[in-house]
Amino acid sequence: MVRRCLLTFKPFRIFVVGVGFFSLCFLMTSLGGQFSAKRLGDSPFTIRTEVLGGVESRGVLRKISDMLEVILKRMDTLSKLDNSSSTDARRLDELSSAINRFQPAGLVEKIQAIAQNVSNMAIRVEQILQSSMMQGRVRDGTTSQCEVPRDSRFPECPGKVDWMRARWTSDPCYAFYGVDGSDCSFLVYLSEVEWFCPPLAWRNQTSPPTQHTQQAKSPKRQAAFRTDLSVLLEQVGSGKESLSFMKRRIRRLAQQWATAANRLDVKLGQRWRDQKKILVHVGFLTEESGDVFSPKVLKGGPLGEMVQWADILTALHVLGHNLKISMSVKDLQGFLGVPPGRGSCPLTGPLPFDLIYTDYHGLQQMKQHMGLSLKKHKCHIRVIDTFGTEPAYNHEEYATLHGYRTNWGYWNLNPRQYMTMFPHTPDNSFMGFVSEELNETEKRSIQQNKVNNMAVVYGKEASMWKLQQGKDSFLEILHRYMEVHGTVYYETQRPPEVPPFVKNHGLLPQHELQQLLRKAKLFIGFGFPYEGPAPLEAIANGCIFLQPKFQPPHSSLNHEFFRGKPTSREVFSQHPYAEQYIGRPHVMTVDYNNSLEFDSAIKEIMKTKVEPFLPYEYTCEGMLERVHAYVQNQDFCVPEPPFVPTNFSRQGSAAAVRPNGPLFVPIPNSTALGWTSNVTAPTAWPPLSSLRLLVSQEGQSCVDACHSAGFICEPAHFRFINNKESLRGLEVQCEVVDSEINHILPAFSVLRRECGLQREPLLFSCAGHSPKYRRVCPCRDYRRGQVALCRDCL
């Protein structure tokens, strides 16, 4: 039986006969829209011609599909030319004959012949097109109109045209925007879609280039608190165990979110809140990123990221924002309006969202599919980043030159666009998550039913019981005093890593784990995982958390887990937040290698009575309060002008003259300086009323210097203290004041009397430190139980 595939192009009609080309027709219709080449720079006219099989052959099929797509566009262009000569018609007939010669015995076995013929066919179509277009331009007199301009205002234009001539077929998106291989189409694209060439005088332009299109100003709408989560649950979707876990969590905490929303609504009064259009793209759960988390949800795998994402989604929904949720690259492309192709071209219009929450995986996917638009729109992005990204790693050029380049980081974002799970990196914003809050009745019940000699081990995977060296010795000590329980996942046999005296319950559902923690007196960590949500849940259920002290501290310099992460932070215990912000009696940090110290700690824990405790910032209300403040006040799309002290006048003065007195004055009962009340403070968030200016010791970071004084380092205030006024206020003796690019600046050397100011705002760093310099540090106050916000921030 003869099978036919009909390709119709006015005024040409080509009938293709043959079993072999039936396969190509099937590829073109069934696969053409689904596959793309792996390498962005590959031309669809270039393909390896050796016989391949398996995975490699599928890659070749994708190449063939791309080539056919381009060929069809070229032939469609030819069909619209009214100057086709008899020679062109003859060449098209030859193409038809070439197509008819496809007669491979099998698609995979004879893929070499298909690939070579398609390549030849593509090249011949291109030759005919170029010839016909040139003839048409000569007759129409448009050749002069499409000469490449030499304009000093657009110095990159000639180079970009050369690039387009050589590579315009590397991405179908160029054809989507009308590029057809002619210089005219290159110049139209480079002046109207991108911005590298000047506008063409003969074009009837009614709008500026895509890259310069301003975000459409839609009328502001007021956000209203929501307590019904049914719409959110539907948006989250299904089909993965990770999504089911997130939905179970959202349902379980629904009443607490509703109560928190009502409380915050009362606290904020009738204050207007802008409703934002927000896209949440959970990159690490997409199939394209590999999604190694979903299959492990029921096998003891890490849940912290899913806990945080579920709470972020709920907080944004409850706050009343217009939310879209993406769990795949296809969803991402649809929501953003990405043109078809491989991401080389910009978006077709303004960004349809005010904010985009994603992670590092999602950021990489956005880069791949948004092309040039990412640079323009990246100020709208917020990156959920568990362990934080320090400024030295975030600045691409600086990181590359000074040894801070890793597989993450280097995105040149404002460091506050990274949002962490715990407030360990003040250069970033603290997003956090929530832990279940108990009412007074539940708290009393827990205290009455505590089993004084019961301990639960923090470690759901058997591998965690392997990691801690000397585990057997301290577990033996613990076993002397307490009944030890575990929640280690297993399928059929008890994990051999778990000692026989441990009562292993297996992996428990969340509500059963809660009941176990409500009975236990002690929750004990082995040193891994770092900074997870479980210790806070245990403390909230009345447990004392015992954790190991790290000597020396763990960091990217000495520990495999942190190696490659964009931070130099030193971790002195398994859960630094619990140690620093909660502390005794709820948290005890000891040296597990010291058996006497460990033994003493167990005895102390058995004697100590504690009430369930949960920091306010990890309650539903605390998270709503924090996320509300970020959404309404953080705006990284508005350029921050350099702060020039001479531009600010004294209160009541009409002229902008340098004030007679200092900008920074001593604060009563403190060694820090604050903003003077005699000078009008520039508008900022956090407001300058929260500023506390002080200096660090040599080798001390601003993170530690501020924390030692009872404050938090505030990177938003760096631009107000990066000047001689602050040095003068701190009575720093400077013989030389230089402006440089270095992440420890502003700082000064006491020995050499050298002072340095920061020249690159992206490198303002709370974390930077040097043994030779003392840092000039912008600290701030903070609300009780909410370190992310200053006292006047809400």
TrEMBL record:
Its EC number is 2.4.1.155. One of its GO terms (cellular component) is Golgi membrane. It is an enzyme of class 2 (transferase). GO terms for biological process: protein N-linked glycosylation. InterPro entries: GT18_cat (IPR026116), MGAT5_Glycosyltransferase (IPR052105). GO terms for molecular function: alpha-1,6-mannosylglycoprotein 6-beta-N-acetylglucosaminyltransferase activity. The chain crosses the membrane at residues 12-33. It is a single-pass type II membrane protein. This is alpha-1,6-mannosyl-glycoprotein 6-beta-N-acetylglucosaminyltransferase. It comes from Austrofundulus limnaeus (Annual killifish).
